[in-house]
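testing teh design pipeline on a random one, pls ignore if ur not involved
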């Protein structure tokens, strides 16, 4: 199982704190009815965190005009929206919400060139709230495809997310289906797509990054 490159430090901290807590339980509590269930819970937490920061193997098998989901999760918004940071035009916004148990590694949705990237510090409201898109900590990335289309997306931190990782660099050529970053804990992805895009998903649909086609350009 592959672990996200930027998450080894987090996992080391989780394992270290869990081991210290287990040691304290054995030394000071000494009541098996409390110690062993608590140690089992700490072990479960370590395993869950390892699972959480994994980068799954996904089979990308889409057409060149397909835009695939950046993240695993559930579609919570499909609507027209004005993208006012870089594109400066009306788009179709498709938002995917990730809960604690979804894979939080993110993947490029199309092939193309990075034409814009910016990190925005901010608040940590729950990611499903509309104002989270503008007020929460987030990143913005735009990919320009060989066919002349722009796909813009935001990684948005949630109420518990405290770190966003994005590998985008302006001028880089990227390939759909490869990892573009990770958001640590509950969060959301907003995708801004051309108005003439043929949307292939519906509200409340579950998505799998690299595999679920959000739209055709």
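output:
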């Amino acid at each position: 199982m592959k672990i996200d490159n930027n998450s080894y430090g987090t996992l080391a901290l989780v394992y270290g704190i869990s081991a210290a807590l287990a040691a304290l339980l054995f030394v000071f509590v000494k009541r098996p009815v409390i110690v062993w269930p608590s140690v089992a819970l700490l072990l479960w937490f370590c395993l869950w965190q390892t699972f959480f920061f994994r980068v799954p193997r996904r089979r990308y098998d889409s057409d060149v005009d397909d835009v695939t989901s950046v993240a695993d999760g559930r579609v919570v918004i499909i609507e027209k929206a004005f993208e006012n940071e870089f594109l400066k035009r009306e788009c179709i916004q498709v938002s995917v919400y990730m809960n604690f148990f979804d894979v939080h590694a993110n993947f490029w949705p199309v092939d193309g060139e990075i034409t814009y990237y910016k990190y925005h510090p901010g608040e940590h409201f729950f990611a499903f709230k509309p104002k989270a898109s503008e007020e929460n900590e987030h990143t913005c990335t735009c990919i320009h495809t060989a066919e002349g289309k722009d796909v813009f997306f935001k990684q948005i931190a949630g109420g518990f997310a405290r770190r966003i990782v994005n590998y985008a660099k302006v001028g880089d050529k990227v390939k759909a289906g490869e990892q573009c970053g990770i958001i640590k804990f509950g969060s959301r992805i907003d995708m801004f797509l051309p108005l003439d895009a043929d949307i292939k998903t519906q509200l409340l649909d579950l998505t799998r990054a690299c595999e679920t086609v959000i739209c055709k350009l």
